[in-house]
Amino acid sequence: MTTLRENEYQLLRALADTEDAILVADLAASLSLDQSLIMAAGTTLLEADLAEMQEQSYEELRLDSDWRKLAEPELPERLIVIGLSKAGGSATIKELPGHTGLEQKIVGQSLRFLTGKGWAQKSGPSLDLTDAGRAALQQRSADEQLIDFLKGVKSATDAELAEEGIDWQGALKLLQGRKNLVRTKERTLRSLRVTPAGREAAKNAVVRQEVNQLTSDMLADGSWRDVDFRPYDMGAETEPVHPGKEHPFRRVLEQTRRVFLEMGFSEIVSPFVESSFWDFDALFQPQDHPARDMQDTFYVNRPDHCALPDEAVLEAVRRTHEDGGDTGSIGWRYRWNQELAAKPVLRTHTTACTIRALAEDPNPPRKVFSVGKVFRRETVDYKHLPVFYQVDGIIIDEEASFASLLGTLEAFYRKMGFDKFQFRPAFFPYTEPSVEIFVYMEEKKDWVEMGGAGVFRPEVTETFGCKVPVLAWGLGLERLAMFRYGLKDIRQIYISDLTWLKEAKLCR
Amino acid sequence: MPVVGIPVTLLTERIGADLSPDVLIEKLQYLGCDVEGYATLRRFKCLRCGNIMEITETQDPPVRCRRCGVDYADHADERQDLGDDQVIRMELLAVRPDMFDPGGLARTMRGYLGESLGRRDYAVSGPVARVTVDPALDTDACPRPAIACAVVRGIALSDDIIKVVMNLQENLHWALGRDRKLASIGVYDLDRVCLPELTYRAVGPEELSFVPLGYDPEAADSRITPRRILEEHPKGTEYAGLLAAYQKYPLLADGEGEVLSMPPIINSEHTRVTDGTQNFFIDVTGSSRRLVGRTLNVLVTSLVELCPDITVEQVTIAYEGEELVTPDFTPQRVTLDVAATGRLVGIDLDAARLTELLQRMGHDVDSAAGTTLEVDVPAYRNDILHPRDLMEDAAIAFGYHNITPVLVPTMTVGGERPVEGVARVARQTLCGLGYLEVMTLQLTCAERAYDALRLERREDHAEVSHPISTEQTLLRPTLAPGLLDTLTANAHREYPQQIFEVGEVTELADTDTGAVERRRVAGAVIGEKMGVTEVRAAAEAVLREFGWSVRTVSADLPQFLPGRGAKIVATRDGDQREVGELGELHPEVLEAFKLRHPAAYFELDLTTLTGHR
Questions:
Q1: How far apart are CA A97 and CA B336, in angstroms?
Q2: What angle, 0 to 180 degrees and rounded to 10, lies between the N-to-C axes of helices B21-30 and B102-112?
Q3: Interface check A344 vs B, CB under 8 A
């Protein structure tokens, strides 16, 4: 026994009513189904040999986009015939616009159709009406008949036109050379006819109900077992949707924080407005150091003054700067000025944060880090901003060494997704030995500098009573993000294009 | 950092070892040089003044002399093409001026490669002259107390060496002199200087006059006073700022009273160095005796490296109550603990190994004591303040690339700051509601933070004293300008838009620095169907995650449409806190930010809510 879906069964029943083939369009109308559903059901019947399909091609004609311009109210050659007739059967071409209301250009373009139909002939500058032209006044040509008919309908088939007695093929010949007036298209007429097997099946087929939607009710009463679910087009595409997302650079910042947390570091913080003391002096940066110039550092006029640590700390820092104090150094040998140390700046590095932590508790073992914004007096361009992020960290440990600094940095960059490093000597006023970290960028086929690090100088640590090595680093993070997300312009991070935010890949 | 071009031939000749181009660059990098790569420079000589100019492959030949100004369009025959020279381009390593020129750099490389171990000795004789220093130079009226001098004879300078020395002098002015402020170098034709007695003294602005370099001694009115030099000589006006606070000016003169120079501004025409000059008098003046001494040492020893046949003679500097002799090549003695060095660098070292490493860095080492080394540091090194600096030298000689990275063995327990957990919850909540996170600049200006928001200007924000742009004058007191700027920047993107930021705002406070950060979250929605309902729901969702309920209290807030602004009050167990504001933005605010659709905004202070900063 044949099992059929509802639509298939209905279709088969309709076909089985007659021996004849029935047009798909007629089936759609009689069954009140969309033609695509008739075709889908028909395909099943065809595959099961319950029906067969007949195809017949035909021409479909309809008026094209420019017909109003070209044929309203009449074709121009007819207007000319009428005009010539009124003018007594002859007129010069120059006079015709006056007689017809047509532009000279249109008149010129129409002459070949006029003579082609034999309605007029040229005689010097004049145009004379022929007998055929006079006859045409009473009679419409084939192309006109076609246009007249099409004006009343959306489209017409060749068969319909033939039935109306319109010589559509002749009309098309006459219309050759007139673009966008009448359009023809070859179409196929499909009809279905029942097979003997189909006629048999129609008598005893079993119908399965087919539904679109699985409903809660069906689940509740178990009726889902008795129905078929109409298959969806699982290849169909959907409109893209975008979730609310964290900023790509936030991912880098959070990953950086997570890496140091994983490595047993505690997170610390310090204010954006910082005293020159903590930003520079405590780090053994001499007061005439170029980094302290107004050119490079944002000084702050509100608040206009920072409180300094107690006298003993100030005295230790003063002595270290001037002659090395008790640190074993010869110092910078100049007169240290406490007032300069009290000047507020926007912190130029997060090392201000780590040195504060060191001063607060210099006792090993300690591992702290800070991810935060720092400020440099840079003009905004594609690679510079006056504000950017750094991660600074320190390790205060009896066992700390330059080798364990390199190991820590390597561990960090490995966790950030890099696997080739170079450590090159560098110079920073507050670390010794100092190192710059380069990572290998496949995209650039080159080494890229990522940040600086070193062992805090004894002039820095011993001034605050710390007697063990202190490993320190300050690493830029925007550059890392720019490489990760393929950004060419650092401003994209802070003045973001929402489309980029939506489409940036959070994971690679 | 300035970039210098080290002529490859001059360098490799003096290194003496056969290094391939790639290996040479690698070794330089191991020493800490920031090498950009090889390049070709073309040199031109000005036949009128002897100046040598370099251009890169992409530059056009000079159309006029950068020193004397002669126009080669009219005087084509005065520009001599010296041809191409291959150089290694590298950034100057500011702390190692002894590696600025091919002579000094080759000296370091020879040691590093093991071609010559230990400290290089430089022969000196003399003293052949004596400079008496006026105590007035060590006063606030004329604070340039230090001077160091040398006499150098027998230099036959080729054009390429002349350019190297010119570059070295310029780069020493930058690195050690801070553009002549801390130290400036003068070079004179020795044969025009009357030895042995010279004076370095402070003179009044009108006290005397002389013909400055570049002025024609035959011309009338070419002898001018220090005051006029500062007012009208090109170098005088360029460097006048250095002497702005001086009431008197430094002056170096010889036994006949002929002026050599007015440091740090200009030499005299009388002692001008010409193409044929072979004997030189050199001085360095500045603020500290050590610095001028080291600067002179770098210059003189590099000259010897470049021109080995020259002789160097000393000069006595007679300060009040103390006499020094310069150049002074006496090494600096530093005691270094062998075990401490190994521990700090993290490598296995014994006295013999450390001795070899330090010798390769140009130091002399006495290892007799075994556990400690007595290290003699060359007198041209200006960067050895502490034994730690020698530990770095040892690490560099060992090679950073040869150090095995390890981790600190000590266990520590880490932890994040509580405010970061707070911020994360706020971000996750708003992401869940479909808001996109943005990050905006910390700096803004009063026009945006107040005026554009229709707010009264306030003064309780941190303010920069010399901003780099008028749009970045203060630390943001609110997140609003950044969020609204982001909407402006996305005016052409699809609507509606929902964005948020979690970030710091700064307020003045009674702390040691006078200002402190608070953590805030703010969100903005824009588009026809977006409004107060959306932002209120979002604010409530955030607060709910922290266990607070929300009450919105209608308030007259200028940034919002009248009747459409409210204070956000968080409530929990009888506790009430005003934590923020929300509303539909006033059309004038929208206009100020060039926004063409209705928008609503909320801002919550997470610090008030949670107590965490």
A1: 112
A2: 80
A3: yes
Residues in Cβ contact with B545 at an 8 Å cutoff, skipping those fewer than 6 apart: B425, B426, B429
pLDDT, average across residues A204-223: 88
pLDDT value of residue A205: 83
Burial class (CB in 10 A: 0-12, 13-18, 19+), A52: middle
In chain B, which residues have their Cβ closer than 8 Å to the Cβ of A269?
A: 417, 517, 613
3-state secondary structure A397-457: CCCCCHHHHHHHHHHHHHHCCCCCEEEEECCECCEEEEEEEEEEECCCCEEEEEEEEEEEC
CB A380 within 8 A of CB A491: yes
Residue reference for tokens 């399909």: A53
The first and second tokens of residue A65, run together, are 């986009």
Q: At CA B316, angle to CA B310 and CA B317, rounded to 5?
A: 125
Q: Do B443 and A502 touch (CB under 8 A)?
A: no
Full DSSP string of A355-366 = HHHHHH--PSSE
Of chain B residues 340-359, which have a CB less than 8 A from chain A? 343-347
What is the 8-class DSSP label of residue B590?
H
Question: Which of the following CATH numbers is that of domain B125-326: 3.40.50.300, 1.10.540.10, 3.10.290.10, 3.50.40.10?
Answer: 3.50.40.10
Answer whether B599's CB lies under 8 Å from B487's CB. Answer: yes
Summarize pLDDT for A159-213 with one digit per residue, the tens: 888 888 888 888 888 888 888 888 888 888 889 999 999 998 888 888 887 788 9
User: Percentage of residues in chain A with pLDDT exceeding 70?
Assistant: 100
Domain range A63-187, CATH class = mainly alpha
Flag the least confident range among A301-315, B1-15, B439-453: B1-15
Return the CATH class of domain B332-402.
alpha beta
What interface predicted TM-score (ipTM) does this complex get?
Answer: 0.91
Residue range A249-501 forms a domain whose CATH class is alpha beta
Q: Kindly tell me if the per-residue pLDDT of B505 is higher than 90.
A: yes
Tokens 């040892």 — which residue?
Answer: B394
Poorest-pLDDT segment among A173-177, B340-344, B422-426, B519-523: A173-177
**pLDDT at B67 > cutoff 80:** no
Q: Is A268 on the interface with B (CB under 8 A)?
A: yes
Band (pLDDT 50/70/90 cuts) for residue B284 is very high
Q: What is the mean pLDDT of residues A140-151?
A: 88
Q: How does DSSP assign A262-305, residue by residue?
A: HTTPEE----SEEEHHHHTGGGT--TT-GGGSTTTS-BEEES--
